[in-house]
Amino acid sequence: MISEIYQKIISKQLKKTIKVWSRRDKKLKANCKIPGRHILLVSSPISVDNQASSLEKDVTNWLIPENGDIFCAVDKPYAISQKYEPAVAVCIQLANIFARFNTIAAKTSKCKVADGNADADWVVLYKPPGEKRGKILVPPGDAWADNPQDLERAADHSFAKALESVAQNHQDKRFFAYNNAAPGVVILDTTAPADAAAWIVHTVPDYPKPKVAYTFPASEYANGHLLLCLTISESQIEPIEVSTRPTLKKLLNGETPIHPPFSSKQTIKTQAGAPVSVQIFSKSGRSKYEIYQKIISKQLKKTIKVWSRRDKKLKANCKIPGRHTLLVSSPISVDGQASSLEKDVTNWLIPENGDIFCAVDKPYAISQKYEPAVAVCIQLANIFARFNTIAAKVDSCS
């Protein structure tokens, strides 16, 4: 009998989807034809407790089920030739062995918890000036925690893991990155039946660098930075494109970008069973709108408290009842780590009361009236509560 051991024997006996690490030929591909019994190929390179390995030099053949407690070592590679050869697989049923290899096989297009070892629906990391790790908030968001590693480390923390598909070449991952206008990246998983993407928005210039070893720019440790990650379905990507690149979107559709509307509001949701609602406010430079007062406060119908570098022209504004713009006093404390406007390049706001937190890509300055701008507003009471504590003091408003 001619049988292919991975699909016809192991997956069939385990009655599970399996993830395979093995050298492969150009004939035997990933296989997602049988529901519940897919053959997924682990992306190269991998990290074995921070030691790198790639298919070019690694002659091992092993697999794990997508979920469970089994690890299998196979004596033949994932290639069509093994259909015509004797083959043996030794499968050990032990949860701890499975867990170690599951970490190795976990190439991701989702946000990750603080240590990078499990998926997360969302992540907020605030790195005050001078800090190398900062504070991290993951679901449910009851309290800040210490980020477990320096941000330049290539493993064992949330953003290094989430960005590994950008930093290295992975055939089953795609991403598009954009910078200097709501700096960020969207990471896609192209393997069927995956329907997941990670949207990462941050304030760090020239980060991440694509297709080179992951790192964090050492010069940016001196500054305060904010990093957000949202796990979304791929269906949510188009609203992000519309918000972050509205002019490009119009041009691609054959529209003239000089006509209104010059601002937009999009709503997306995270991928969790109890999804978090996220509003994206954006405007073009042609609009000449001031995004904080004219768009965000107006849309939220609330007084807002703003943390941002500011010029000497745009002041706190208390002219519109119920829609004041209050400026958070400097310095602030992020769970015991100090930050001040002199070194903090983040721009964020919360309403005076409510359950919303917004990260904005432009500072509270008159210059942003003439520039495109984007605000990402997450509606979650626990995130709001953490930033509300930080924003407890505001400057007087005349």
Automatic annotation (TrEMBL):
A UniProt-annotated Pfam family? DNase_II
Identification of the protein by name: Deoxyribonuclease-2-alpha
GO function terms (MF aspect): deoxyribonuclease II activity
Cite the entry's keywords alphabetically: Hydrolase
- The answer to keyword Hydrolase applying to this record is yes
Spell out the family assignment given in the record's similarity comment. Answer: Belongs to the DNase II family.
An individual GO BP term: apoptotic DNA fragmentation
Q: Which residues cross the membrane?
A: none
